Each structure stands twice: as structure tokens, then as C-alpha cells.
Please model this.
Amino acid sequence: MTQFVSRFLAPFADTLRRYHALKYVNAKDVLPPEILALVQEYSGGALIYVPKKDDDKIGWGQKNGARTQVHMRNNNIVDAYRDGASVCDLMLEYCLSEASIRKILYTKNRATA
Model:
């Protein structure tokens, strides 16, 4: 099964790397021989994803500013609602569902209470 998947995905490897910013590094170039032997014993030559250490991880949207933008948008939604905008108006203006608008209003209302 693994060989089938590898052969099937091989033509798409470059595309996957480009779109998902995967960095392929040969293990023999970065691992000591003892560790490489252990990895080979357990993986049998399969491609392995090695996640970053938890210390190196950053939260969603912190690198590109998306978290800040969403926070500002949500504050604007709450302010507009308090100024008299209806949920329907906010849905149309921000292209969000009624459930999303109500969740933002509920969450922000609870945070200030």
C-alpha cells in the first residue's frame, strides 16, 4: 500500500512542496548515523514528517497578522451591533453566517461582563 501511494504521489511531489512549503531534507544530511539507522529500522524508507518542537510553534495567525485582523473585525462587529446594526446587516457586510455573527456577539459580550 505504501509503495502504491508513493508511486501515485511521486509526480505531484514538487507541486505539493511548492503549495505547502514542505522542505525536503535528506535525513543522512542532518542526522547522526546512529539515529539514521534507528529511523531506517522503524520507517523502512518511508517519508516521515518531523514536526517542530512545541517551543518553536507559534499560534494561529501570529506570523501573518490574521489573528489581529480577525480580532479587529470582531470588535468592529460588536461596535456596529451596539450602534444599532442588525444581525442581518452585519451578515451582509462581513459575509458571515448568522451563527458566526451571534457567536462573535455572545463571546465578546461574555468577555466584557
